[in-house]
Design a protein that fits this description.
By secondary structure, the chain is of the alpha/beta class. It is built from seven helices and five strands. It has a single domain, classed as 5'-nuclease (Rossmann fold, 3-Layer(aba) Sandwich), CATH 3.40.50.1010. Strands 3-2-1-4-5 form a five-stranded parallel beta sheet, with helices on both faces. Helix 7 links the parallel strand 4 and strand 5.
Length: about 140
């Protein structure tokens, strides 16, 4: 008999972790585990996530890391996951976090969303990894 598993909790993901799912020359056990978690539950992202994903996939194509069709295929597969987009709600929090931790406003938006929703954050970004615990945000590794 298999032991009961604790249910996986919803989380906030950023583009740094999601891009690993679609770039064949990237590898991360944390990204793989996060994908499994998103498939099993749900993830939240700020609206800029989709622009970041499109931009990095396009740049990856231009640098010949992926084919042109991979851009559209990756975005299609991503859109099929249970990812909920949340518009930024607290400009002051985003700016404060960016200033306090030397983050871009883009990265601070992910951290702010995790704080506002009281959810763990999945990221591979070193600055976010350093800032999250200082703000009481649990990191998913």
């Amino acid at each position: 008999m298999e032991a009961d598993r604790a249910p996986l909790m919803t989380l906030v993901i950023d583009a740094s972790i999601a891009l690993v799912w679609f770039l064949p020359d990237e590898d991360s056990a944390a990204a793989d585990a996060t994908l499994h978690r998103v498939i099993e539950t749900q993830a939240f992202v700020p609206d800029l996530f989709w622009h970041e994903m499109r931009n990095v996939l396009l740049l990856s194509y231009r640098r010949k890391r992926i084919g042109r069709h991979d851009i559209w295929q990756s975005m299609l597969r991503l859109s099929q996951l249970a990812i909920t987009t949340i518009a930024p709600s607290n400009t002051d929090l985003v700016l404060t976090l960016a200033d306090r931790h030397g983050l871009t406003a883009y990265d601070a938006a992910y951290l702010a969303l995790a704080i506002e929703r009281q959810l763990p954050l999945a990221t591979l970004d070193r600055q976010l990894i350093a800032a999250a615990p200082a703000e009481g945000v649990v990191l998913i590794a």
